[in-house]
Specification:
Elements: H1 9-27, H2 33-54, H3 60-80, H4 87-103, H5 120-144, H6 150-170
Helix pairs in contact: 1-2, 1-6, 2-3, 3-4, 5-6
């Protein structure tokens, strides 16, 4: 993922982390889990809409991502409210995700000149993300089969994915080697 100064990047990441926490709370049957999940979905929808409106150069892929986020968050909100007809939002999410992946896909993880930019640390973090997602899937399957240790497995997976989402917020910023401002500071 690019290390850029995208609008509202940090609040959106916190909302995603809160969403994962709310989902974990629902699995563990902790009170107010639906409230946390609902507020997180709502925050993601609002924050991403504001981010989209602030974007100056809107390409078709930006519109696809906005539609994807709206379908996904609307589906999440309506499912929490037990709305019976969420299938259209699930289909919309699937179609827009496939469209986004076809248009941008893995190039999202490359530099602007289309060269892979992953350092060893980023490769390790990406491996951790994949391991976290696989752990969540395994824990979900274990939970469906009523196997032991399903909840701890889900908890570990959700914790890994949450750490991945929040890693850039708490890590020190990278130095820019080529100073585009000729060593002048912007106010």
């Amino acid at each position: 993922m690019r290390n850029s100064n995208k609008a509202l990047k940090t609040p959106i990441r916190f909302a995603l982390a809160a969403l994962l926490g709310g989902m974990l709370m629902r699995i563990l049957l902790i009170p107010y889990a639906s409230v946390v999940t609902f507020i997180s979905f709502l925050a993601i929808a609002v924050l991403y809409s504001v981010r989209f409106s602030k974007k100056e150069d809107k390409k078709p892929v930006a519109y696809i991502k906005m539609i994807l986020v709206l379908f996904w968050t609307t589906n999440g909100l309506l499912r929490i409210l037990d709305f019976p007809y969420t299938l259209i939002f699930q289909i919309g999410t699937a179609i827009t995700f496939i469209t986004w992946f076809a248009m941008e896909g893995t190039s999202y993880f490359m530099d602007d000149d289309r060269k892979a930019k992953n350092s060893i640390i980023e490769i390790i973090w990406n491996f951790a993300m994949v391991a976290g997602v696989l752990t969540i899937i395994s824990g979900g399957l274990m939970h469906l089969l009523n196997w032991e240790y399903a909840i701890p497995t889900l908890t570990i997976g959700l914790s890994i994915v949450t750490a991945y989402i929040l890693k850039d917020i708490f890590s020190p910023a990278k130095e820019i080697k080529n100073d585009p401002n000729n060593e002048e500071f912007q106010l």
